[in-house]
């Protein structure tokens, strides 16, 4: 009977907070030991936080990471559980590493072999790839240690570990950036890997936000049948334990002779001998978990993103400009869920073009969310600008200039409140606006965190509707969903004067940005070439704005952030 | 007698402007052919421009690059010169490549072996490394083809090409990002390589600006003695030709037996047979060029950066807020040199805290530069803001909020002028300010291009002094150099109230940012630990501002741009 008790420490570290992260690790260690776990997994680079970016180039940072590992090792004295913890091994060169620690000793260190350098990843900038696999032997049980990307490759190192070395369990410590649907994809992918290679997989993922990136947790254990027997919560810190039955693995291997005929690469192995697992009395049973619907997942993601950005950066309160429109209503709602009513301030900044309905809706929302609402008119300040610029603007006609001025006065108000009271400004622009430049730089784009920067307008509506339904009440007033979207910067303005309908726009953008299709391919999906080229043209022309936008929470496969590295100076035009 | 006539096309492509770049290539081809050149070198990725960043992920972009190469090939029909041109070979995977073209045919394609992925480089994100070296044989003459980074490695592929294969000339096509002193460093480095490996080197570098990056040209040819026999202008487009005498090479090899005993890696070679060079009548003699002094080099760099950013992005005129201080004076001067007096607008935006001297100096500068100067007071608008915020700010005291408001009104004025008249706003913040956050987000940081973002305050003064001296007149008024630097946002304010003296600050910053020293190591240089930690603390706290700053022209080894990838959320504190 090969049984192994595994604890997954699905925790939320803070980048650079070595002391705080160490304390979290120590607590998890105590719990895992109490639960008589044989193996305790932490996320990738848990001690430092992930991704450390150019802090990797600071010797002092690397040294403190090393010192933190040593403290954790000394905490482990007298503890029987073997833990696998992510840190930066920088003794000779920098490696994204997993230390195997037990009873006051580092038994071995594994270096991540597959370093991603695409999308949001820059791991070739910082790390040297590992050249050797690491296998723990606990009596008869063999456990392969891997880090994140290692398990996402088509063949290696998984093939060598399983088909080559015959490990019973692949442990994977991870910091896997979230996008919508990633938890489900990961579950499918890892359970199919377990099924394909006839091996149990224990996957421990990071949770929490780090600037634009989110980590959703949703750690899991799959048995060698591909059945998920444990699933951690999504966007929840959690320390979960399970007893994995590893006999299953052998049975399947004996019945399926494929592995005897399959060749693997010649990667070297290193083996570590550990004491075998001790017999236990009570059981930690299966907890397969359930799925979340799309809107709930996104909402929870954004709430986590706001909470972590605000708190990890030492803020307490936030301020949101309330226009009575859909975007600001959703942002205020998310902020309230993340931080509590007392920590969210709404500001209404009416102009002559603000409709009565918008003002009413903004007040109603503030009331529904139970947040304080300030009102500061922009009329007088706007007039004083027009007066000051009168001479210079003689013989010109009103245009986008005057519209932008209004947006910028509002931006200045919010920043003044931020400066005076220490409130972080949340911006309310959505992905459709960020893409097309339908936003004012230094105006509605001014702030510290762009909450829905990666959420298309059509999804903003969907999430708003889902929220009201969940609450069983029109927290976001019904009229907000019904009126035509407008910036209200001149009389009777609507978004759709300048933009294609959002249902069309969002699809074209998604094909172009996230699926990287060429215009012809998008046209094949049933969109007019003229609309496609107009959309792409707006996208390209507004690169300079996006370069100056605040960070936003990434929820798609390609957000305007680390995975959108477009030049400003760019004469390329889609043919 | 082994002689080879080489033409270097040190040209300034525009990213994505395939048609324009092709036209430049065609012109260079005509000239090289007229000059009976045997070999014509273009810069790295010349046909697309460099760096293409995430345009690399667009199939349509890659296809147009391929189509452009084909057009160039057809232009080459009937031409005897062999040309080496940088493009993206994307037939099977994406490679940073050099095509060897002669008389209507692609004779061979080389794939860059050494792909940089540090500093400003992300080449592992986009390209697959080459696995094979390419050697051209023109009769008895062997020429190794390399791309940029290939020649900056300590050993390979240079060792194999020279010691292994015995090439007479290494041709290197390059897009080498500029920093102060790079032209001289490159000259030393390449000539020492030539000396060490007993091989002639012909190095053709890109020239011009692409967003934050500059390429300085300064192409060169070194003979196998390490003597630079040709040097291209710095920040100049140029097509230069030289006859290289390659007998020298053989003589040295016979006299120095080292190579017979040195081992090299086993990289495969591919040989291309080309017709031998024909005998020529007249000579293209040596042109070793001269050095530039530091201030002149920086000034020329910034002028190039402004000119290329403005023109390549389709702007004509720029606007600069003139405060009468050193920074804005230098920026206006650079802009005037880059674009001409008629294309630069100065705006004076006095407040009650603006000194009479500052206003006079600003006017005087505008007069000296012969640029139009507008004056728009911020007083009334500032008052209207205070009035509007009066209620909300009851029971608070004036602080940084009111200072920022003034800066933001000025930012709004400049942006309003930009919106109304299509003038690009140049910001005037220097590197010392960008580092310490001594600047207002959406205020003086508002604009399209941050001209001196990578120039420390002490250098701003140096360059200003150099400029006046060069002109033999106080174009930048003498008083600007003499008065204490101040933001003039409250009475009697000076920079040095909040910041260490610039002589100290700049050195600490340079050690920390550019040399990556730890605080203890900086203290060893003779600075007070308290000042060091205070400086580093300011640097860290202002990451969020820098994330929203406009692009700036990189002139140092580490600018706040592509090579400064710091997290905002960061609890790491220097110990």
TrEMBL record, chains A, B:
It comes from Thermatribacter velox. ATP binds at residues 321-328, 428. Deamido-NAD(+) binds at residues 404, 433, 545. Its EC number is 6.3.5.1. Belongs to the NAD synthetase family. Pathway: Cofactor biosynthesis; NAD(+) biosynthesis; NAD(+) from deamido-NAD(+) (L-Gln route): step 1/1. GO terms for molecular function: NAD+ synthase (glutamine-hydrolyzing) activity. The active site is at residues 44, 112, 148. PROSITE patterns: CN_HYDROLASE. It is an enzyme of class 6 (ligase). This is Glutamine-dependent NAD(+) synthetase. It catalyses: deamido-NAD(+) + L-glutamine + ATP + H2O = L-glutamate + AMP + diphosphate + NAD(+) + H(+). NCBIfam families: nadE (TIGR00552), PRK13981.1 (NF010588). The lineage of its organism: Bacteria, Pseudomonadati, Atribacterota, Atribacteria, Atribacterales. Catalyzes the ATP-dependent amidation of deamido-NAD to form NAD. Uses L-glutamine as a nitrogen source.
